[in-house]
Write a structure and sequence with these properties.
Strand content: under 5%
Radius of gyration: 29 Å
Shape: extended
Largest sheet: 2 strands, antiparallel
Structural class: mainly alpha
């Protein structure tokens, strides 16, 4: 970088030039933040569309009288059918594996069952797609000639393993984020369910009301409650609707709520008192997790403090003095 003899310098670097570049980067970041804030889409539109599709599917299973009417509502995906036929010919598509992938997709918020075939297909194709080029680069060229045989083998094996696990890692990341978002709003949802139950609303009406109230604050939880309310109104067995809710959400707390709902439906026990106890328990658990994170904060902030905050503080405090001393000696 060229230095300006008329301006202050630090270690031969023009301070004004560096400050100008950093200001430009900061201005660009502000513009990007403004664009991201103004162009954000409403997530409820996509969720409402998915819920309406599920309502139509449940309605079709009850009211459709002929196979032609059902065929109109069930649209086949040609690409999915081809992938399914290809995997079946290789004898790598197992029903248990497909069912597990479908459950993970539901827990990640992906409603289409066709993606389960894509997940299994990705496990087969990604190691070949990324593994073969890395295998050629390591053993067919001199790009990694300085590496030992163990290191070269580690690169190839690590690429193949990561490629195979990539779909599962992506789904696990989405499931974790979605479960955390649902866990935050579960105590508030149970409190509203208690209020609705004491007001005399039925279970499906209470779920509809809670989903409408919490849809903006906790869209994932509102979506699941709305879907549960739809299934309670259409499925012949109400127990199945609650079990579907426990399957779609990977949380032990939700499984406890579902068990309570099933018991109250079966034995006629008071719903409001049971939900009130669960709400207090989940709220205390959320407070304990917050206190645990707060207790870990000083230890976590030690490394960023040493690496980023203290050097910046020293530069701000000692930088002008160092520039003045350097100019005086010149």
């Amino acid at each position: 970088m060229l230095s300006n003899p008329n301006g202050p310098t630090l270690l031969g670097i023009d301070v004004l030039m560096v400050a100008t570049i950093l200001s430009g980067v900061a201005a660009m970041a502000v513009l990007l933040a403004i664009y991201a804030a103004t162009s954000v889409r409403d997530p409820m539109q996509r969720r409402v569309k998915a819920l309406n599709d599920r309502r139509e599917q449940l309605k079709a299973g009850i009211t459709a009288s002929t196979s032609k009417r059902r065929a109109k509502l069930v649209q086949k995906n040609e690409a999915t059918d081809r992938i399914r036929a290809f995997l079946t010919s290789l004898k790598v598509l197992q029903d248990e594996q497909l069912k597990t992938a479908q459950i993970k997709l539901l827990q990640a918020g992906i409603r289409s069952k066709d993606w389960a075939v894509a997940v299994i297909f990705g496990r087969l194709v990604l190691p070949i797609t990324f593994g073969l080029p890395i295998l050629y680069l390591v053993y067919g060229t001199d790009a990694f000639s300085d590496y030992s045989p163990l290191q070269a083998y580690g690169i190839v094996a690590g690429t193949a393993i990561l490629s195979y696990k990539a779909p599962d890692l992506y789904l696990k990341n989405r499931i974790t984020k979605r479960s955390d978002a649902i866990r935050k709003g579960l105590p508030d949802a149970l409190d509203l369910l208690v209020i609705c139950a004491e007001a005399g609303l039925t279970v499906d009406a209470a779920f509809h009301r809670v989903a409408r109230e919490l849809g903006r604050a906790y869209p994932e939880l509102g979506e699941e409650f709305t879907l549960t309310a739809i299934e309670l109104g259409f499925l012949t067995e109400r127990r199945q609707a609650f079990e579907n809710l426990a399957t779609r959400i990977d949380l032990d707390a939700v499984k406890g709520v579902v068990t309570t709902m099933i018991q109250t439906e079966k034995y006629g026990t008071p719903l409001a008192s049971a939900l009130r106890v669960l709400s207090a328990e989940f709220r205390n658990e959320r407070m304990m997790r917050a206190e645990e994170k707060a207790a870990r904060l000083p230890a976590i902030m030690t490394v960023p403090l040493i690496l980023f905050i203290l050097p910046t503080l020293f530069i701000v405090i000692l930088g002008p003095a160092a520039c003045s001393i350097s100019d005086a000696f010149k």
